[in-house]
Amino acid sequence: MEHIKSLIRNIPDFPKPGIQFKDVTTLFQDRWGLKKCLDLFEEKYRYQPIDKVAGVDSRGFIVGAALADRLGCGFVTIRKKGKLPWETISESYDLEYGTDDLEVHVDSIQKGERILLIDDLLATGGTLSAAVRLIERLEGEIIGISCVIELAGLKGQEKLGDYPFHSLVSYDEM
């Protein structure tokens, strides 16, 4: 995991002072970085019954879609408000630097489908908890939540309920 950590760029004071932004684009552009992340996620989930992977806008799409392909299941996009072209449901949430809304198509998850929720980073838990509420409203069964990075010091897991959580790397600092 130290190799993965070494490929993540730290950007101080972005998008506002006091935020230490973890940039996964440097991990994804590395020749082996994205492959290693996908290998680790696939190893963890390959024998679990998953109908769909749900990825959160936008970096969650990169990992989520590729992982869905590897696992042989469908992929659901959970997007920022106004980006999906058809009928949606919406959830508002707070982030560490503002507020936003997430949406999902009303027909993207069927009742009882087993969903793996993926994003690049868990910080305060606002984004992922909104995604969880969307999946629950569509009556999907969340089998797990995974991220490349967890900022453990921000205690975002506390907002995710009792769903199993997994991250590839964790940082204690905020």
Q: Which helices and strands occur, and which strands form pairs?
A:
Blueprint: H1 2-6, E1 9-12, E2 20-23, H2 25-29, H3 33-45, E3 52-56, H4 59-71, E4 74-80, E5 88-95, E6 98-105, E7 114-122, H5 126-137, E8 141-151, E9 165-171
Parallel strand pairs: 3-4, 3-7, 7-8, 8-9
Antiparallel strand pairs: 1-2, 4-6, 5-6
Helix pairs in contact: 3-4
Low-confidence stretches: none
Give the termini separation: 19 Å
- Would you report the number of β strands? 9
Radius of gyration: 15 Å
Strand content: 35-45%
User: What is the domain tally?
Assistant: 1
Query: Helix share of residues?
Result: 25-40%
Q: Structural class per helix/strand content?
A: alpha/beta
Average pLDDT: 95
Give the CATH architecture: 3-Layer(aba) Sandwich
Enter the CATH topology name.
Rossmann fold
Which sequence of SSEs, written as H and E, runs from N to C? HEEHHEHEEEEHEE
Shape: globular
Quaternary status of these chains? single chain
What is the count of helical runs? 5
